[in-house]
Amino acid sequence: MSRGEVAQTAKAYQVPAIERSMLILQALQQHGPLGLADLVSETGLSRSTCYYLVRTMAKAQLVESDEETRKYHLGIGLVELGSAATEQLGYLGVIKRYIFDLLEEMDATFVIYRRLDRGRVAIVDKVEPSHRLRVTVPLGTTLPIQGGSFGRCFLAYDHPTAVREILNAGLQRYTEQSITDVDRFLSEINGVRERGWALDREGFALGVSTVAAPMLRDGQPLLVVGAVAMAATLADDATVERWGRRLREICDSASTALHRHPRGSSGLDGGVALDER
């Protein structure tokens, strides 16, 4: 079968209603509650298509409507599905078990990233301190892979040719601290692979710095764990070095645990009681 025939076959198996429903869910994820007119504008769907889809999705509690504002927002059904997916993705439970041990050591929000494709990363989970000022990050957020320390942890294990291809379009300047020189960026990636963790000082968001390390499986990043903190917290190199080493340690421990119990956290002591810690 030729490449064109494969593409045509794949297209034939796509379901337009599901693709259009995802456009609606993604619009609500990115923009929050929206009225029907705004949903039409954001998704490019016709008004009638959008109307019937949100009515159907509302019956399944995937979206809900506010009678006063006449706006739609993400529904409780998604929370239930997300909770079930998290339980099935056992490696999230494994790494979170180790992250909880760091809450008293580091004044940070711990964010777990997963790579979507060559150029994008998504926030799939987080662990936040309960009694301190913290940096908040919304789950499901999609980020460019060049955007911070999390992306460098993924790119550090890519083939150099693949990295060059990703960077061919250039590096975006998010703040005055962003690295926009390709050679310097490549040097940073090499350093990540050597020491096992990455640092971003206000390069993606002003006032916020992040130390991150990859959780490896078969030599490739399965997830990346980032400790996100106010920039002042990571102002000195000694703190950065300590956080980097500790993140590397817990990611290595989680990788070892996952190797021993490949089906996830169900075989680990305490793995089923994460929320109680």
From TrEMBL:
GO terms for molecular function: DNA binding; DNA-binding transcription factor activity. Keywords: DNA-binding, Plasmid, Transcription, Transcription regulation. The keyword DNA-binding applies. It comes from the Bacteria. CDD domains: HTH_ARSR. GO terms for biological process: negative regulation of DNA-templated transcription. PROSITE patterns: HTH_ICLR, ICLR_ED. This is Uncharacterized protein.
